[in-house]
Specification:
By secondary structure, the protein is mainly beta. Helices cover 6% and strands 60% of the residues.
Length: 540
């Protein structure tokens, strides 16, 4: 049943309106999330190249979400190009176009033996795949994490635990009801009083919603959910309605937004809005556009009123575009008597533009402009350096190029520039890497990288390398890396040098049970910091 539903889902997501193009839809899963990259595991990356776009699916929408920066025989290192919040085991799709006269092959084993590549052609009818009006698909995972921080400093060592439950149940028992949730609970030893004072200090509900299909083109949802058509606003609590008219879809929502301090429920933060979306796909080319109007309140008063636009397309051969921007329609001003007066305005905010050009099989070039607000993390275990790097390298202009010298040797470089009125000075950064997949005689994948950053808050360089290897028929993955960090904080002229060592091992115990251990050690002249991460995950 799962296989039949997946075939149907892929046909909905990747409709081919004309021609005889045949596609391989290669499913993969998010295997690791770092401060800058998303790692996606495939059964095989044959047919995927650096610079390709990977997708997530939601309902019947195809959403460009990741850009492949480099890859090995089974994994892709990607950069996010959307506002989607990724979690481990998220399902990711790569779309590989094949020539019609080339015999298509389907892998005999699924990624993690759970999902299978499916060949989709424009001559295939959904009726031939599933005769049921609604088909059940259920997947999810339950995980337990342990984070240990140990150092020789005066600060206390700490032990933190995190537990997560993720469930996606579509058309339960072939009915019209669906349910999804992603919940985490974390606590620190010795700090249980913080949990008792406010459970939302530990409990984070990212999605928790039930959906009912009134018919094949109309559905309603209740709970906390992120709508892909208006993903920029994040999660919304309350009621949502959606209607699909062939290429168009529209809907509205009413409810509240999560509390900005602890991500809990806050009935004072009322909001309502509506959206409309348009989507086409023909002969391997697609366009997707959406527009939304949102009114957000705070304790009964208008807090923000804005219009949101999102567009992506691949109309030009080998070129893909993705862009979002918001326009604020409301502001408060203070008059000479110190009274606040509400006024209408037209102020573009939150702009993000990305253009990717695949010049050849070997070369891809991309550029982006990011003027969105920085992300607020309600859960993070990033180091101070990683948080600064992410903030300083995220916004502004970015250019990137990837070149494949051979099948196994990939080189990439990216640079960024930002200058905001709020910054004490301009921010410039350059990052480069070279990856050698499956080094002969060793069957290792090695990457050497270097970063230079100059900003008003941090100046410095990072040089590093990493080796990884799959052993025992890909049941165990091991890796080790090293980074040398030399940076200065301009504000107080503090100079810091760090040697950072890391090692990890992941064991696929059996089909849906995995265990991993990671270590990261940061060594300064006098201070040493050690971090241990343990994870046990059961998928179902």
């Amino acid at each position: 049943m799962k296989r039949q539903f997946l075939k149907f889902l892929l046909l909905v997501i990747f409709p081919v309106l004309n021609g005889q193009n045949v596609y391989d839809i290669l499913p993969g899963q998010v295997s690791f999330i770092s401060s800058q990259n998303i790692y996606v595991k495939f059964k095989s990356t044959n047919g995927i190249a650096s610079g390709d776009t990977l997708f997530i699916s939601s309902g019947n929408k195809l959403i460009p979400s990741l850009l492949v920066e480099n890859l090995s025989s089974t994994s892709c290192v990607c950069r996010p190009v959307s506002d989607h919040t990724f979690t481990i085991s998220d399902l990711i799709f790569a779309k590989v176009i094949r020539k019609a006269d080339k015999k298509a092959e389907i892998d005999s084993k699924a990624i993690a033996k759970e999902v299978r590549p499916v060949i989709v052609s424009d001559t295939t009818s959904p009726d031939l795949i599933s005769k049921k009006e609604y088909s059940e698909i259920i997947r999810g995972s339950i995980s337990a994490y342990s984070y240990s921080d140990i150092s020789n400093t005066a600060g206390d060592n700490s032990q933190r635990f995190r537990y997560t439950l993720s469930l996606y149940a579509k058309n339960i028992s072939d009915s019209r009801f669906s349910f999804e949730n992603y919940i985490s609970f974390r606590h620190k030893t010795g700090d249980w009083g913080e949990v008792k004072s406010n459970v939302f200090n530990a409990l984070k509900i990212y999605t928790l919603a039930v959906k009912y299909d009134l018919n094949k083109s109309t559905n309603i949802s209740l709970g906390r959910i992120i709508n892909p058509s208006i993903s920029s606003i994040g999660a919304a609590d309350g009621f949502q309605f959606q209607k699909i008219f062939d290429k168009f879809s529209t809907g509205f929502l009413a409810g509240t937004r999560p509390d900005y301090s602890d991500y809990g429920l806050n009935i004072k933060l009322l909001q309502f809005g509506a959206w409309v979306a348009y989507k086409t796909q023909k002969e391997g080319k697609y366009t997707e556009s959406s527009m939304a109007f949102m009114q957000q309140m705070n304790n009964g008063q208008t807090d923000r009123r804005f219009v949101y636009f999102q567009h992506s397309n691949s109309i030009i051969k080998n070129v893909s575009f993705f862009g979002t921007f918001e326009v604020d329609m409301y502001k408060l001003e203070t008059d000479i008597l110190n009274n606040q007066i509400s006024k209408s305005t037209f102020n573009p905010t939150g702009i993000y533009l990305s253009l990717n050009y695949k010049a050849s099989k070997a070369l891809s070039v991309s550029g982006s402009y990011d003027a969105r607000k920085n992300v607020i993390y309600y859960e993070t275990y990033k180091t101070f350096l990683d948080r600064i790097l992410e903030t300083e390298m995220r916004q502004g202009f970015r250019l990137q190029a990837n070149y494949r010298f051979t099948k196994d040797i990939i080189f990439g470089v990216q640079s960024g520039y930002r200058y905001l009125k709020s910054d004490p000075g301009s921010s410039k950064n350059v990052y480069g890497y070279i990856t050698y997949n499956q080094i002969p005689g060793l069957n290792l994948t090695g990457t050497v990288s270097a970063t230079y950053l100059e900003s008003g808050y941090l100046n410095g360089t990072i040089i590093g390398g990493r080796l990884s290897k799959d052993i025992f028929n890909d049941k165990i993955q091991v890796g080790a890396g090293y980074r040398y960090v030399d940076y200065t904080l301009p504000e107080n002229k503090l100079k810091i040098k760090q040697n950072i060592a890391e090692a990890d091992i992941s064991w696929q115990i059996y089909d849906k049970l995995s265990f991993s251990v990671s270590y990261e050690g940061t060594f300064e002249k006098t201070d040493h910091y050690n971090r241990f991460y343990l994870q046990l995950r059961k998928r179902f």
